[in-house]
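worker-03 picked up job from queue 'complexes'. Input manifest follows; two sequence lines, order preserved.
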Amino acid sequence: MKREAAIVGIGRTTYSRNSGVSTLALAREATLNALEDAGLAVSDVDGMSSFAAGNDSVGVHELAYSLGLDGLYYFSDTVGGGNVAAKVVADAVWAVEAGACEVAVVYRALNSRSGKRFGTYADPVAGRGGPVGGGLHVGGEGQFTAPHGYMVPGQWFAMWTQRHFQTYGTSNEDLGAIAVQYRAHAANNPHAIARAPITMEDYHNSRWIMQPFHIYDCALEADGACALVVTTAERARDLKHRPIKMLGHIAYTGKAGNNDLWDDMTCMYSHFVGPRLWDLTGLKPKDMDLACLYDCFTYTALATTEDFGFCEKGEGGRFYRDGRATYGGDVVVNPHGGLLSEAYIHGLNHSFEAVAQLRGDADKRQVKDAELCFVSAGAAAYGSAMILARG
Amino acid sequence: MTEIRAPMSAPAPPQPLPDALSQPYWDHAAKGELALPRCQACGTWHALPLEFCRKCGGKPSFQVVSGEGEIYSFLIEHHPVAPGFDGLMPYVVAMVSPREAPELRLISRLDGIVPDEVAIGMPVRARFVDHPGGDFKLPVFGPA
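worker-03 finished. Artifact:
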């Protein structure tokens, strides 16, 4: 009989703009909270999965050592951005199901507001170039773009958004509907950094970052960590919470991950992942009670909402404007406020929210009778999605 | 005809760090030529210098093109993302489809145009400017 895995614990730190502590301290706190939540001990852990972008976190070896563990039977440090935030969860589920380990911790810890920020120019040491003669020298693909002042992710997204505007007549009114909707959700989430409601007028009046993006189109760079605990379904029966199962996960990477080579910039990896995930699970978008959609920018949510089939291609803005992405609509999207309003914990906070909702532990923002949650992570050429279910 | 002119105290804009594959691009640029990688066996154009053509495995090399193209997409930058650009903001960065290989998208700061007048499909042409802070000449597109 196939061995099944379940998510049995979730933990996190406070999300803030300045944690004042190391990523190790954040990772420890989130992990210990997740184990406490699960009713497991540190000594039960024999697997860990995490991800980092440009050495901005603490790796699994260091965290395990710090927690007093002498060894791990499953260990994975994935290099990546939010593209891998769902994949690291799937990897841990599969490791447990394969019998590689018994109890795996999945975590993401970063100081992306007080430390190295994604929204400003690349760390010269982390890039393929290096500081030569005191200036910023950029090699690899970046040598053709950085000298033009093009070197942060938001700029790629702005380019694609402009294509979507051109192709489908999408506008800032559509992007703004997403920002306003998620912020309204965050008002019911005490853990969210940004809870004060915004209006469409606030959105339009807010400053430009990289046009067509206003500040409210951009994820809330933050400090913090969150963690999930995965073990066998059998062991889950004796633990504190209702187990949460992963029904399926599909990842895709295209065109060497180079975002300027992406053929149709109005769609993303989700165009490839969606159909396969629905086929794999036998489920449909309308079956989902809620969706935690990766939203590093409003446009990411818009394009992937369309690609995954929650609405027709080109109708993403209308989907939000018509109230179909909230309570009483088709599917509640990002009830925690998403990366735009809860915090940019690089997408792993989406999995935390999914588990909390499916357990029925989401308090004022609880989606009624939530049984199935769609979780996505990534953008453009590279990303994945999974469906989590109440066990 | 704006060039990047920052005060001496300001940081220089990012400099290219050529490697063996990309060096010919910068050698051409120094002569005022825009050159793009093209497979000498099958004729496929490539956006980036490659060791092997991804269509046929042949050997790409650089071929000089006209420097004409049109805007595929663009953004208007209002936020300091790169050193050396503070004095230029807001500046426009475009994806340009070169005339000879419209399937490619070249990234270029746009020069000589008011940001609000930029539109997809607009014809543009490259010219070469001295890139501050080093010895490189950089192709910068502007209205054709």
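worker-03 released lock.
Residues 287 and 372 of chain A are 7 Å apart (CA to CA).
The longest strand of chain A covers residues 223-232.
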